[in-house]
Amino acid sequence: MRILVTRPAEDGAEIARLLADMGHEALLAPLLTVRIFDGPKLTLDGIQAVLATSANGVRALAARSDARDVPLFAVGPQTAEAAARAGFIRIRNAGGDATALAEAVPAWADPKKGPLLHAAGEESSGKLAEALAAKGFQVLRETLYRVDAAAHLPDAAVGALRENSVQAALFFSPRSAGIFAERARQAGLSTAGLLAVCISAKTADALHGLSFSEIKVAAAPNQAAVLACL
Fold first, then answer.
1. Threshold 0.85, pTM exceeds
2. First vs last C-alpha separation in the chain
3. In terms of Cα–Cα distance, which of 30, 9, 7 is closest to 156?
4. CA distance 168 to 183
5. DSSP letter at 113?
6. pLDDT digits over 26-52, tens only?
Protein backbone atom coordinates (compact mmCIF):
# COMPACT_ATOMS: atom_id res chain seq x y z
CA MET A 1 0.00 0.00 0.00
CA ARG A 2 0.90 3.64 -0.37
CA ILE A 3 0.27 5.26 2.99
CA LEU A 4 -0.10 8.90 4.00
CA VAL A 5 1.96 9.67 7.12
CA THR A 6 0.87 12.82 8.94
CA ARG A 7 3.47 12.98 11.74
CA PRO A 8 6.11 15.72 12.06
CA ALA A 9 9.08 15.31 9.73
CA GLU A 10 11.51 13.50 12.04
CA ASP A 11 8.96 11.00 13.33
CA GLY A 12 7.53 10.60 9.84
CA ALA A 13 10.91 9.63 8.40
CA GLU A 14 11.23 6.89 11.03
CA ILE A 15 7.76 5.56 10.22
CA ALA A 16 8.59 5.61 6.50
CA ARG A 17 11.53 3.28 7.18
CA LEU A 18 9.34 0.94 9.21
CA LEU A 19 6.64 0.90 6.54
CA ALA A 20 9.24 0.11 3.87
CA ASP A 21 10.30 -2.91 5.93
CA MET A 22 6.65 -4.00 5.88
CA GLY A 23 6.47 -3.66 2.10
CA HIS A 24 4.56 -0.36 2.05
CA GLU A 25 5.41 3.03 0.57
CA ALA A 26 5.07 6.15 2.73
CA LEU A 27 3.95 9.54 1.48
CA LEU A 28 5.09 12.06 4.08
CA ALA A 29 2.60 14.83 4.80
CA PRO A 30 3.65 16.53 8.06
CA LEU A 31 0.71 18.39 9.58
CA LEU A 32 2.68 19.55 12.62
CA THR A 33 6.03 21.31 12.93
CA VAL A 34 8.00 21.08 16.19
CA ARG A 35 9.70 24.28 17.45
CA ILE A 36 12.20 23.66 20.25
CA PHE A 37 12.66 26.69 22.49
CA ASP A 38 16.05 28.20 23.17
CA GLY A 39 16.95 28.83 26.80
CA PRO A 40 19.53 28.37 29.53
CA LYS A 41 20.92 24.95 30.36
CA LEU A 42 18.86 22.83 32.75
CA THR A 43 20.88 20.99 35.38
CA LEU A 44 18.03 18.81 36.73
CA ASP A 45 19.59 19.08 40.20
CA GLY A 46 17.14 17.81 42.83
CA ILE A 47 14.81 16.28 40.22
CA GLN A 48 13.80 12.73 41.13
CA ALA A 49 12.80 11.82 37.56
CA VAL A 50 11.73 13.31 34.25
CA LEU A 51 8.27 12.71 32.81
CA ALA A 52 8.41 12.47 29.01
CA THR A 53 5.06 12.40 27.23
CA SER A 54 6.48 12.57 23.71
CA ALA A 55 9.64 11.99 21.73
CA ASN A 56 9.60 15.73 21.07
CA GLY A 57 9.87 16.38 24.80
CA VAL A 58 12.89 14.08 25.01
CA ARG A 59 14.62 15.82 22.09
CA ALA A 60 13.88 19.26 23.52
CA LEU A 61 15.17 18.27 26.95
CA ALA A 62 18.32 16.74 25.47
CA ALA A 63 18.99 20.05 23.70
CA ARG A 64 18.77 21.98 26.98
CA SER A 65 20.39 19.60 29.47
CA ASP A 66 23.55 17.51 29.58
CA ALA A 67 22.15 15.27 32.34
CA ARG A 68 21.57 11.72 31.15
CA ASP A 69 21.63 9.75 34.39
CA VAL A 70 18.39 11.12 35.84
CA PRO A 71 15.57 8.53 35.62
CA LEU A 72 13.28 9.20 32.68
CA PHE A 73 9.71 7.90 32.69
CA ALA A 74 8.48 7.60 29.10
CA VAL A 75 4.84 7.51 28.08
CA GLY A 76 5.40 4.77 25.50
CA PRO A 77 7.85 2.81 23.34
CA GLN A 78 8.62 5.54 20.81
CA THR A 79 9.39 8.05 23.56
CA ALA A 80 11.53 5.48 25.35
CA GLU A 81 13.44 4.79 22.13
CA ALA A 82 14.02 8.52 21.62
CA ALA A 83 15.38 8.73 25.17
CA ALA A 84 17.77 5.84 24.54
CA ARG A 85 19.00 7.47 21.33
CA ALA A 86 19.54 10.72 23.24
CA GLY A 87 21.76 8.90 25.74
CA PHE A 88 19.49 8.56 28.77
CA ILE A 89 20.44 5.43 30.68
CA ARG A 90 17.68 4.96 33.29
CA ILE A 91 14.48 4.68 31.26
CA ARG A 92 11.09 3.31 32.25
CA ASN A 93 8.36 2.75 29.67
CA ALA A 94 4.67 3.03 30.59
CA GLY A 95 3.68 1.45 27.28
CA GLY A 96 0.66 3.64 26.63
CA ASP A 97 -0.62 7.17 27.10
CA ALA A 98 -0.50 9.83 29.82
CA THR A 99 -3.06 7.92 31.85
CA ALA A 100 -0.87 4.82 31.76
CA LEU A 101 2.13 6.92 32.76
CA ALA A 102 0.29 8.41 35.74
CA GLU A 103 -0.68 4.91 36.88
CA ALA A 104 2.88 3.57 36.48
CA VAL A 105 4.80 6.33 38.26
CA PRO A 106 3.93 5.35 41.87
CA ALA A 107 5.70 2.01 41.33
CA TRP A 108 8.81 3.78 40.05
CA ALA A 109 9.10 6.83 42.31
CA ASP A 110 8.43 8.04 45.85
CA PRO A 111 6.65 11.34 46.53
CA LYS A 112 9.07 11.90 49.44
CA LYS A 113 12.19 11.73 47.26
CA GLY A 114 11.80 14.96 45.33
CA PRO A 115 9.82 16.54 42.51
CA LEU A 116 9.22 15.16 39.06
CA LEU A 117 9.87 17.32 36.00
CA HIS A 118 7.50 17.20 33.02
CA ALA A 119 9.36 17.96 29.77
CA ALA A 120 6.28 19.52 28.24
CA GLY A 121 5.11 21.08 25.03
CA GLU A 122 3.30 24.40 25.00
CA GLU A 123 0.02 22.67 24.13
CA SER A 124 0.35 19.92 26.76
CA SER A 125 -2.52 19.74 29.23
CA GLY A 126 -2.00 19.66 32.98
CA LYS A 127 -3.88 16.38 33.43
CA LEU A 128 -0.75 14.31 34.07
CA ALA A 129 0.42 16.67 36.81
CA GLU A 130 -3.07 16.70 38.33
CA ALA A 131 -3.26 12.90 38.38
CA LEU A 132 0.16 12.61 40.04
CA ALA A 133 -0.56 15.43 42.50
CA ALA A 134 -3.55 13.38 43.66
CA LYS A 135 -1.05 10.60 44.43
CA GLY A 136 1.13 12.94 46.48
CA PHE A 137 3.76 13.88 43.88
CA GLN A 138 5.04 17.36 43.13
CA VAL A 139 5.30 17.87 39.38
CA LEU A 140 7.27 20.78 37.96
CA ARG A 141 6.53 21.78 34.38
CA GLU A 142 9.25 22.92 31.98
CA THR A 143 7.76 24.08 28.65
CA LEU A 144 10.47 23.23 26.12
CA TYR A 145 8.77 23.28 22.73
CA ARG A 146 5.62 23.98 20.79
CA VAL A 147 3.96 22.24 17.88
CA ASP A 148 2.57 24.41 15.07
CA ALA A 149 -0.17 23.32 12.69
CA ALA A 150 0.47 23.25 8.95
CA ALA A 151 -1.41 25.93 7.04
CA HIS A 152 -2.31 23.44 4.28
CA LEU A 153 -1.71 19.89 3.15
CA PRO A 154 1.51 19.41 1.13
CA ASP A 155 0.97 19.56 -2.64
CA ALA A 156 2.10 15.94 -3.04
CA ALA A 157 -0.54 14.78 -0.58
CA VAL A 158 -3.27 16.84 -2.26
CA GLY A 159 -2.33 15.40 -5.65
CA ALA A 160 -2.24 11.84 -4.35
CA LEU A 161 -5.65 12.18 -2.71
CA ARG A 162 -7.16 13.67 -5.87
CA GLU A 163 -5.67 10.84 -7.95
CA ASN A 164 -6.67 8.13 -5.43
CA SER A 165 -3.04 6.98 -5.39
CA VAL A 166 -2.90 6.47 -1.61
CA GLN A 167 -4.79 3.67 0.09
CA ALA A 168 -4.39 4.49 3.79
CA ALA A 169 -3.50 7.27 6.22
CA LEU A 170 -2.01 7.10 9.72
CA PHE A 171 -3.13 9.46 12.48
CA PHE A 172 -1.25 9.71 15.78
CA SER A 173 -3.15 12.36 17.75
CA PRO A 174 -6.56 14.02 17.90
CA ARG A 175 -4.88 17.31 16.99
CA SER A 176 -3.26 16.03 13.80
CA ALA A 177 -6.43 14.20 12.79
CA GLY A 178 -8.47 17.36 13.31
CA ILE A 179 -6.01 19.41 11.26
CA PHE A 180 -6.17 16.84 8.46
CA ALA A 181 -9.97 16.90 8.47
CA GLU A 182 -10.05 20.71 8.29
CA ARG A 183 -7.39 20.98 5.58
CA ALA A 184 -8.98 18.21 3.50
CA ARG A 185 -12.35 19.98 3.63
CA GLN A 186 -10.72 23.29 2.71
CA ALA A 187 -9.12 21.67 -0.34
CA GLY A 188 -12.31 19.87 -1.34
CA LEU A 189 -10.68 16.46 -1.10
CA SER A 190 -12.47 13.13 -0.91
CA THR A 191 -11.24 10.45 1.48
CA ALA A 192 -13.96 7.95 0.61
CA GLY A 193 -11.51 5.33 -0.65
CA LEU A 194 -9.03 5.75 2.18
CA LEU A 195 -8.39 3.50 5.17
CA ALA A 196 -7.76 5.61 8.29
CA VAL A 197 -5.67 4.01 11.05
CA CYS A 198 -5.80 5.92 14.34
CA ILE A 199 -3.81 5.69 17.55
CA SER A 200 -6.90 6.16 19.75
CA ALA A 201 -10.67 6.49 19.68
CA LYS A 202 -10.36 10.22 20.37
CA THR A 203 -8.13 10.51 17.32
CA ALA A 204 -10.74 8.71 15.22
CA ASP A 205 -13.44 11.04 16.58
CA ALA A 206 -11.43 14.05 15.36
CA LEU A 207 -11.94 12.87 11.77
CA HIS A 208 -15.67 13.51 11.99
CA GLY A 209 -17.20 14.96 8.86
CA LEU A 210 -15.01 12.93 6.51
CA SER A 211 -15.97 9.61 4.92
CA PHE A 212 -13.42 6.78 4.80
CA SER A 213 -13.57 3.25 3.46
CA GLU A 214 -12.84 2.18 7.05
CA ILE A 215 -11.57 3.72 10.27
CA LYS A 216 -9.51 1.41 12.47
CA VAL A 217 -8.28 2.12 16.00
CA ALA A 218 -5.04 0.61 17.27
CA ALA A 219 -5.24 -1.88 20.11
CA ALA A 220 -2.90 0.29 22.21
CA PRO A 221 -2.00 3.99 22.05
CA ASN A 222 1.48 3.60 20.59
CA GLN A 223 3.25 3.57 17.23
CA ALA A 224 3.84 -0.18 17.13
CA ALA A 225 0.13 -0.85 17.61
CA VAL A 226 -0.77 1.61 14.85
CA LEU A 227 1.54 -0.17 12.41
CA ALA A 228 0.21 -3.55 13.51
CA CYS A 229 -3.29 -2.29 12.70
CA LEU A 230 -2.34 -2.18 9.03
1. no
2. 10
3. 30
4. 17
5. G
6. 999 999 999 999 999 999 999 999 999
